[in-house]
Amino acid sequence: MAHVVFLRAANVGGKNVFRPAQFAAALTHLGTVNVGAAGTFVIREKASAAAIRRELVARLPFECHIVIRPAKEIVELIRSDPFAGVRFSRDLRGWVAVLGAKPKTRPALPMMFPKSGQWSVRLDRVDGAFAIGVWQRRPKGFVFPSNSVEAALGVPATTRWWETFGRIAAVIESS
């Protein structure tokens, strides 16, 4: 079964810097495909999540939270079309946070961040291992979805923009 790997806080703000394309090339025996610069990989070969995790930990030049999900979950998420009817732009984007554990809390949704004033991040739903919402550009400050999701749900999370999930699904479906 194929899997998708999400590294949390890789290549962010000059920390945990590495070259994802070179990293994927070192894992060709797993059929690894790099998707973007944030530490997102599709593992095409059959391997358990535990075996994949061991390989990654042994090769990563830093410690980080690693989330591994079955590829079929990503395809199902894309097919569910959680943003149907939403028109994205440079100032309005969809995001999905992949959760590192089962949420410790189940807050009433939707939730807006910041909680006062105009929101920048809206958490709309939690669906299995995914928190889903919308981000909108605001002139003052930048609120990133991962921080908001982690605060709301009490678990580690790593966020990718919706278009990245589309690219992941395209890699999976081309396998």
Feature tags:
27% helix, 9 strands, 175 residues, 5-stranded antiparallel sheet, 2 domains, 4-stranded antiparallel sheet, alpha+beta
Topology:
Elements: E1 3-7, H1 20-25, E2 32-34, E3 40-43, H2 49-59, E4 66-70, H3 71-80, E5 92-99, E6 111-113, E7 121-127, E8 130-136, H4 145-153, E9 157-161, H5 162-173
Antiparallel strand pairs: 1-3, 1-4, 2-3, 5-8, 5-9, 6-7, 7-8
Helix pairs in contact: 3-5
Number of strands: 9
Please tell me how large the radius of gyration is.
Answer: 16 Å
How many helices? Answer: 5
> What is the beta-strand fraction?
25-35%
Spatial strand sequence of the major β-sheet: 6-7-8-5-9
What is the 3D shape? globular
Number of discrete domains? 2
Report the order of strands and helices.
EHEEHEHEEEEHEH
Give the uncertain stretches in residue-range form. Answer: none
Helix content: 25-40%
Distance between the termini: 11 Å
Helix/strand structural class: alpha+beta
Can you put this structure into words, describing what you see?
The protein is α+β, with helices and mostly antiparallel strands. The protein folds into two domains: 3-74, SP0830-like domains (Alpha-Beta Plaits, 2-Layer Sandwich); 81-161, no CATH class. 27% of the residues lie in helices and 27% in strands. It has five helices and nine strands, in the order βαββαβαββββαβα. The protein has helices at 20-25, 49-59, 71-80, 145-153, 162-173, and strands at 3-7, 32-34, 40-43, 66-70, 92-99, 111-113, 121-127, 130-136, 157-161. The chain has a five-stranded antiparallel β-sheet. Strands 2-3-1-4 form a four-stranded antiparallel β-sheet, with helices on both faces. Strand 6 and strand 7 (121-127) form a beta hairpin. The termini are close together.
